[in-house]
Design brief:
Elements: H1 2-39, E1 48-51, E2 55-57, E3 61-74, E4 76-82, E5 88-96, E6 101-108, E7 111-118, E8 125-138, E9 142-154, E10 160-174, H2 221-251
Parallel strand pairs: 2-10
Antiparallel strand pairs: 1-3, 3-8, 4-7, 4-9, 5-8, 6-7, 9-10
Length: 252
Protein backbone atom coordinates (compact mmCIF):
# COMPACT_ATOMS: atom_id res chain seq x y z
CA UNK A 1 0.00 0.00 0.00
CA UNK A 2 2.67 2.51 0.81
CA UNK A 3 4.45 1.62 -2.39
CA UNK A 4 1.37 2.21 -4.46
CA UNK A 5 0.76 5.57 -2.74
CA UNK A 6 4.31 6.77 -3.53
CA UNK A 7 3.98 5.72 -7.13
CA UNK A 8 0.76 7.66 -7.37
CA UNK A 9 2.34 10.81 -5.94
CA UNK A 10 5.29 10.45 -8.35
CA UNK A 11 2.95 10.24 -11.32
CA UNK A 12 1.10 13.37 -10.11
CA UNK A 13 4.36 15.38 -9.80
CA UNK A 14 5.47 14.31 -13.22
CA UNK A 15 2.13 15.34 -14.63
CA UNK A 16 2.34 18.75 -12.96
CA UNK A 17 5.91 19.25 -14.23
CA UNK A 18 4.93 18.40 -17.74
CA UNK A 19 1.99 20.78 -17.53
CA UNK A 20 4.26 23.54 -16.20
CA UNK A 21 6.75 22.97 -19.00
CA UNK A 22 3.98 23.01 -21.53
CA UNK A 23 2.72 26.29 -20.10
CA UNK A 24 6.22 27.83 -20.16
CA UNK A 25 6.72 26.62 -23.71
CA UNK A 26 3.42 28.18 -24.69
CA UNK A 27 4.34 31.47 -23.01
CA UNK A 28 7.77 31.55 -24.65
CA UNK A 29 6.25 30.77 -28.01
CA UNK A 30 3.66 33.47 -27.57
CA UNK A 31 6.22 36.08 -26.52
CA UNK A 32 8.41 35.13 -29.47
CA UNK A 33 5.49 35.52 -31.83
CA UNK A 34 4.44 38.84 -30.33
CA UNK A 35 7.92 40.41 -30.26
CA UNK A 36 8.21 41.03 -34.04
CA UNK A 37 4.73 42.54 -34.07
CA UNK A 38 5.73 44.99 -31.34
CA UNK A 39 8.96 45.92 -33.13
CA UNK A 40 7.10 46.42 -36.43
CA UNK A 41 4.67 49.04 -35.10
CA UNK A 42 3.79 51.66 -37.73
CA UNK A 43 4.98 55.26 -37.51
CA UNK A 44 2.56 57.85 -36.22
CA UNK A 45 2.27 61.59 -36.73
CA UNK A 46 -0.68 62.64 -34.63
CA UNK A 47 -2.59 65.35 -36.47
CA UNK A 48 -1.00 66.85 -39.60
CA UNK A 49 -1.77 70.49 -40.35
CA UNK A 50 -0.78 73.05 -42.99
CA UNK A 51 -0.40 76.75 -42.23
CA UNK A 52 -0.19 79.69 -44.67
CA UNK A 53 -1.00 83.43 -44.50
CA UNK A 54 -4.68 84.24 -44.88
CA UNK A 55 -4.04 87.07 -47.35
CA UNK A 56 -1.22 88.51 -49.43
CA UNK A 57 -0.77 90.86 -52.37
CA UNK A 58 0.29 89.63 -55.79
CA UNK A 59 4.08 89.55 -55.85
CA UNK A 60 4.42 88.73 -52.13
CA UNK A 61 6.10 85.61 -50.70
CA UNK A 62 3.74 82.98 -49.25
CA UNK A 63 5.40 80.94 -46.46
CA UNK A 64 3.88 77.48 -45.85
CA UNK A 65 4.53 74.92 -43.10
CA UNK A 66 3.33 71.29 -42.80
CA UNK A 67 3.48 70.06 -39.19
CA UNK A 68 2.92 66.84 -37.23
CA UNK A 69 1.58 67.24 -33.70
CA UNK A 70 2.80 63.94 -32.15
CA UNK A 71 5.22 61.86 -34.21
CA UNK A 72 6.14 58.34 -33.07
CA UNK A 73 9.07 56.48 -34.67
CA UNK A 74 8.77 58.62 -37.81
CA UNK A 75 11.84 57.48 -39.73
CA UNK A 76 10.80 58.85 -43.14
CA UNK A 77 7.91 60.60 -44.81
CA UNK A 78 6.66 61.83 -48.18
CA UNK A 79 4.47 64.94 -48.26
CA UNK A 80 2.70 65.92 -51.50
CA UNK A 81 1.25 69.43 -51.77
CA UNK A 82 -1.00 70.67 -54.58
CA UNK A 83 -1.69 74.30 -55.57
CA UNK A 84 -2.99 76.48 -58.40
CA UNK A 85 -0.03 77.36 -60.69
CA UNK A 86 -1.98 80.31 -62.11
CA UNK A 87 -1.95 81.97 -58.69
CA UNK A 88 1.23 80.62 -57.07
CA UNK A 89 4.76 79.86 -58.25
CA UNK A 90 6.66 77.27 -56.20
CA UNK A 91 10.13 78.22 -54.96
CA UNK A 92 11.99 74.92 -55.16
CA UNK A 93 15.06 76.35 -53.41
CA UNK A 94 13.28 77.18 -50.15
CA UNK A 95 12.37 73.78 -48.62
CA UNK A 96 13.42 73.20 -45.00
CA UNK A 97 13.28 69.76 -43.34
CA UNK A 98 14.10 68.27 -39.90
CA UNK A 99 17.82 68.16 -39.15
CA UNK A 100 19.89 65.00 -39.36
CA UNK A 101 18.54 63.34 -42.48
CA UNK A 102 18.41 63.26 -46.26
CA UNK A 103 15.80 65.26 -48.14
CA UNK A 104 14.68 65.92 -51.71
CA UNK A 105 12.01 67.85 -53.62
CA UNK A 106 10.30 66.82 -56.84
CA UNK A 107 8.03 69.26 -58.67
CA UNK A 108 5.30 68.87 -61.26
CA UNK A 109 2.77 71.33 -62.64
CA UNK A 110 0.60 72.31 -59.70
CA UNK A 111 2.23 69.95 -57.19
CA UNK A 112 5.41 69.37 -55.19
CA UNK A 113 6.52 66.28 -53.24
CA UNK A 114 8.86 66.59 -50.27
CA UNK A 115 10.79 63.52 -49.08
CA UNK A 116 12.75 63.28 -45.83
CA UNK A 117 14.39 60.24 -44.24
CA UNK A 118 16.66 59.56 -41.29
CA UNK A 119 20.01 57.90 -41.96
CA UNK A 120 21.57 54.67 -40.71
CA UNK A 121 20.69 53.71 -37.15
CA UNK A 122 19.21 57.13 -36.32
CA UNK A 123 15.99 56.85 -34.31
CA UNK A 124 12.70 57.96 -35.80
CA UNK A 125 11.36 61.42 -35.05
CA UNK A 126 9.16 61.83 -32.00
CA UNK A 127 6.88 64.58 -30.68
CA UNK A 128 5.82 67.76 -32.46
CA UNK A 129 7.70 68.15 -35.74
CA UNK A 130 7.77 70.57 -38.68
CA UNK A 131 7.78 68.05 -41.52
CA UNK A 132 8.61 70.68 -44.16
CA UNK A 133 8.46 74.44 -44.68
CA UNK A 134 8.62 76.09 -48.10
CA UNK A 135 7.52 79.20 -50.00
CA UNK A 136 5.51 80.31 -53.01
CA UNK A 137 5.47 83.60 -54.86
CA UNK A 138 1.94 84.90 -55.42
CA UNK A 139 1.25 85.72 -59.06
CA UNK A 140 -2.29 87.03 -59.50
CA UNK A 141 -5.46 87.91 -57.62
CA UNK A 142 -7.64 85.00 -56.51
CA UNK A 143 -8.33 82.43 -53.80
CA UNK A 144 -5.25 80.16 -53.70
CA UNK A 145 -5.89 76.75 -52.13
CA UNK A 146 -2.82 74.87 -50.85
CA UNK A 147 -3.60 71.24 -50.02
CA UNK A 148 -1.65 68.40 -48.44
CA UNK A 149 -3.09 65.80 -50.82
CA UNK A 150 -1.13 62.82 -49.47
CA UNK A 151 1.38 61.82 -46.80
CA UNK A 152 3.25 58.53 -46.41
CA UNK A 153 4.71 57.75 -42.98
CA UNK A 154 7.50 55.17 -42.66
CA UNK A 155 8.72 53.67 -39.36
CA UNK A 156 12.23 52.52 -38.50
CA UNK A 157 11.08 48.95 -39.25
CA UNK A 158 9.93 50.02 -42.73
CA UNK A 159 6.23 49.85 -41.88
CA UNK A 160 4.44 52.28 -44.25
CA UNK A 161 1.25 54.20 -43.47
CA UNK A 162 -0.37 56.17 -46.34
CA UNK A 163 -2.71 59.09 -45.65
CA UNK A 164 -4.82 61.04 -48.18
CA UNK A 165 -6.70 64.37 -48.19
CA UNK A 166 -4.81 65.38 -45.11
CA UNK A 167 -5.18 69.17 -44.71
CA UNK A 168 -5.92 72.37 -46.66
CA UNK A 169 -5.13 76.07 -46.29
CA UNK A 170 -6.44 78.97 -48.38
CA UNK A 171 -4.66 82.26 -49.07
CA UNK A 172 -6.49 85.22 -50.59
CA UNK A 173 -4.28 86.98 -53.11
CA UNK A 174 -5.14 90.62 -53.79
CA UNK A 175 -4.20 92.36 -57.00
CA UNK A 176 -1.07 94.45 -56.84
CA UNK A 177 -1.80 98.19 -56.72
CA UNK A 178 -1.37 99.98 -60.01
CA UNK A 179 1.38 102.55 -59.69
CA UNK A 180 0.81 105.62 -61.84
CA UNK A 181 4.18 106.97 -62.94
CA UNK A 182 4.83 110.60 -62.09
CA UNK A 183 4.97 112.79 -65.18
CA UNK A 184 8.48 113.70 -66.19
CA UNK A 185 8.94 117.48 -66.15
CA UNK A 186 9.63 118.84 -69.59
CA UNK A 187 12.09 121.67 -70.17
CA UNK A 188 10.84 124.29 -72.59
CA UNK A 189 13.76 125.42 -74.75
CA UNK A 190 14.47 129.16 -74.72
CA UNK A 191 14.27 130.56 -78.23
CA UNK A 192 16.12 133.70 -79.30
CA UNK A 193 13.83 136.40 -80.70
CA UNK A 194 13.93 136.49 -84.47
CA UNK A 195 14.08 139.79 -86.34
CA UNK A 196 10.90 140.78 -88.04
CA UNK A 197 11.50 140.87 -91.80
CA UNK A 198 11.17 144.36 -93.26
CA UNK A 199 8.18 144.95 -95.38
CA UNK A 200 9.09 144.34 -98.98
CA UNK A 201 7.79 146.46 -101.73
CA UNK A 202 4.56 145.29 -103.18
CA UNK A 203 5.34 144.37 -106.78
CA UNK A 204 1.83 145.47 -107.74
CA UNK A 205 2.20 148.90 -106.11
CA UNK A 206 2.09 151.84 -108.53
CA UNK A 207 5.41 153.72 -108.38
CA UNK A 208 5.15 157.25 -107.03
CA UNK A 209 5.20 160.06 -109.59
CA UNK A 210 8.56 161.73 -109.96
CA UNK A 211 9.03 165.48 -109.67
CA UNK A 212 9.48 166.86 -113.17
CA UNK A 213 11.50 169.73 -111.72
CA UNK A 214 14.20 167.40 -110.56
CA UNK A 215 17.11 168.08 -112.94
CA UNK A 216 18.42 164.57 -112.38
CA UNK A 217 15.14 163.17 -113.62
CA UNK A 218 15.13 165.19 -116.91
CA UNK A 219 15.54 162.88 -119.86
CA UNK A 220 14.31 162.56 -123.43
CA UNK A 221 11.95 165.22 -124.75
CA UNK A 222 12.02 167.21 -121.49
CA UNK A 223 15.75 167.82 -121.98
CA UNK A 224 15.15 169.26 -125.47
CA UNK A 225 12.86 171.93 -124.07
CA UNK A 226 15.48 172.99 -121.59
CA UNK A 227 18.12 173.17 -124.26
CA UNK A 228 15.92 175.49 -126.34
CA UNK A 229 15.18 177.72 -123.42
CA UNK A 230 18.87 177.85 -122.54
CA UNK A 231 19.76 178.89 -126.07
CA UNK A 232 17.22 181.67 -126.01
CA UNK A 233 18.56 182.88 -122.70
CA UNK A 234 22.11 182.91 -124.06
CA UNK A 235 20.99 184.88 -127.08
CA UNK A 236 19.27 187.43 -124.85
CA UNK A 237 22.33 187.77 -122.67
CA UNK A 238 24.54 188.24 -125.73
CA UNK A 239 22.17 190.84 -127.16
CA UNK A 240 22.18 192.74 -123.87
CA UNK A 241 25.96 192.74 -123.75
CA UNK A 242 26.12 193.99 -127.36
CA UNK A 243 23.63 196.76 -126.65
CA UNK A 244 25.60 197.96 -123.64
CA UNK A 245 28.76 197.96 -125.70
CA UNK A 246 27.18 200.10 -128.41
CA UNK A 247 25.91 202.65 -125.93
CA UNK A 248 29.33 203.03 -124.43
CA UNK A 249 30.76 203.53 -127.92
CA UNK A 250 28.26 206.25 -128.75
CA UNK A 251 28.82 208.11 -125.54
CA UNK A 252 32.47 208.17 -126.09
Amino acid sequence: MPHSTLALRTRRLRGRALATLATLAALVGASTALAPAALAAPAEAGSITISAPSSVTAGDTVSVSVDASAAVDLFACDVTVTYDPALLAFDDAAGTFPDGGFDSVSEDTGSATFTNTRLGASPGLAGAQALVTFTFTSLAAGSAEIAVSSVTLVSSTSESTPLTDVATATTAVAAAPVVTPSPTPTVTPTTSPTAEPSASADPTETPAATDDTDPLAVTGSDATVWFVLGGIALVGVAAGILLIARRKAVQS
